[in-house]
Amino acid sequence: MKYIDVHCHLDCAEYGDLDGFMQKIRAAGVEKIIAAGYDLKTSLLSAQLSQKYPFCYFTAGIHPTELKKSKEGDLKIIALLASDPKCVAIGEIGLDYHYPDTDKKMQREFFIEQLVLADKAGLPVEIHSRDCAEDMLEIIVENSPLLKNGALMHCFSHSPEIAAELEKYGLYFGFGGSSTWHGAKRAKRSIAAVSAERLLTETDSPYLSPASLAGVFPNTPASIPEILQNMAEIRGESCEKMAETVWGNAHRLFKKLKN
After folding, report:
1. CA angle at residue 167 from 151 to 189, to 5 degrees?
2. How far apart are alpha carbons 174 and 185 in whole angstroms?
3. Pairwise CA distance, residues 75 & 138, whole Å
């Protein structure tokens, strides 16, 4: 079986020696990973790592909670990174209303600006969406022409009803370790409800360890087999069929991934 992690973060000191870390990922059967940038520094790091490790690709973007730290000119560099042959998407971008000091106006403006950037670059986007379902849906609907290259709702946490609305606009849905937790009823319902051709596997490493590694940090892309098995069980399919579906979905969305 071929496994893929479409969203992980590699800027974690706890991973230790990166060469050994990457070998463990491959030993787990994970044949491709996408390292997600969340600010300029991590976007540049992810780009560098994609050059060193052939099975690693990357995204470049500014996360909504990192906007206040960003500087003028950062998005111009993100736009330059977008032309890299191994940059498969603009991300991680989106909305996050979890914290009380959230500047919602700024988040919306930067989110849309990065959607425009992705459209100009001919790339899909990886979207972070937390505690903002109504605003997220509104932005997606209003800016759907900018999403003709595709979009991934990373670590999808909204309801199956929201998923159904987003699916009308061709979005994909990533599920990670949190979907394996006993109490993850909404995620499990969404996995069951979303069309098979819209499902993707991710870890959001080093965060969101799966049930078998509860409380363990860091999580790693080696958790993908457990995440995929959980998805297969929810949908009543074999792991082999689920892995084949997810592999095909990833390559259809991220067109720069090499077969």
Report:
1. 110
2. 16
3. 24
Mean pLDDT, range 186-208, rounded to an integer = 98
Is residue 90 in some structural domain?
A: yes
* Length reported for the chain: 259
- Of 5, 62, 18, 1, the C-alpha closest to 37 is 62
Instruction: Report CA Rg, the chain.
Output: 17
Mean pLDDT of the residues in the chain: 97
Does residue 5 contact residue 224 with C-beta atoms inside 8 Å? yes
Q: Which domain, by its residues, includes 161?
A: 3-253
Number of domains in the chain: 1
The per-residue pLDDT for 259 is: 66
CATH number, domain at 106? 3.20.20.140
CA–CA distance, 10 with 19 (Å, rounded to integer): 12
The two structure tokens encoding residue 127: 């979207």
Q: Where are the alpha helices (DSSP H) in the chain?
A: 18-27, 40-52, 74-81, 104-121, 133-142, 160-167, 185-193, 224-235, 239-253
Contact between 160 and 191 (Cβ < 8 Å) = no
Q: Is the pTM of this model over 0.90?
A: yes
- CA-closest candidate to residue 131, choices 154, 99, 106: 99
* Number of Cβ within a 10 Å radius of residue 129: 25
Strand partners, 114: none
Give the tens place of pLDDT for each residue, 104-118: 999 999 999 999 999
Distance in angstroms (rounded) separating the CA atoms of residues 78 and 116: 12
Query: What Å distances lie between residue 106 and 64, 65, 244, CA to CA?
Result: 9, 10, 40
